[in-house]
Predict the 3D structure of the following.
Amino acid sequence: MSIVLTGVSHTYSPNSPYEMEAIKNIDLDITEGEIIGLIGHTGSGKSTLIQHFNGLLKPTKGRVLVDGIDIGKKGVKLKDIRKKVGLVFQYPEHQLFEETVYKDIAFGPKNIGLDQEKIKNRVKKAMKMVGLDYAKYSDVSPFTLSGGEKRRVALAGVLAMQPKYLVLDEPTAGLDPRGRDEILRHVTELHRRENITIVIVSHSMDDIARLVDRLIVINQGELVYNNSTRECFAQYEELKRIGLDVPTMTALMLRLSEKGWAVRTDILTIKEAKEEILRVVRGGAEDA
């Protein structure tokens, strides 16, 4: 099962002076169980692209299939598609509105007509998935929580709908380091324990490098790369040309290489960098 985009383009305000083609001829396949990163410069078309995954936007050209269902066809119930594909926008805590954490998370399940017992079970499970203790938080106002806790409540509200696919648009934007680490830890755990397919849109190359297996790079509405994370970040000159950075550890290895160190430049994480530097240092000591 998968989300498949074939030749997808989207034009805003067609046949008007404000016409703008935001994405162009995108072919993409998101397979069940993957964790994928999506990066691109501001205005590259990332948000437009992900809104096609659950039918918030429909393609001007091309087709989007969600588990084999063409979401552009007449008669397709987009409500059912949105149960499968949960989309969490930037700063989702701004969308919290109920008087308690429980009511906020229960809003979606209640709207699809579940009985009270099923709603309660879903709320409990969703809170557990994001590391919020039910007894401690369920009756608390979400507006009294920290930024990271609010974001976990918002994420739980989407998870309570039990999506197969979860799309996170800048999940750590605006959070302090502790809040950022909490969110990323729970995202990783969700993928590992629940096997939820996750797509992460992020400007943080370091977060992307340590989280995802595959990387989608978009520039000016066009798909530039769709490869393993390591292969994509190896194209650092091209990424720089389109206004993107590489992970901090990749940049470090590139600088060391420029200074004559015989290090690999496809390093992504602190752990890999440490091992690579030790390898080179120990090799030099043995040669001496």
Notes: The domain at 2-246 is CATH 3.40.50.300 (Rossmann fold). Strands lie at 2-12, 20-31, 35-39, 61-66, 69-70, 85-88, 165-169, 197-201, 214-219, 222-228.
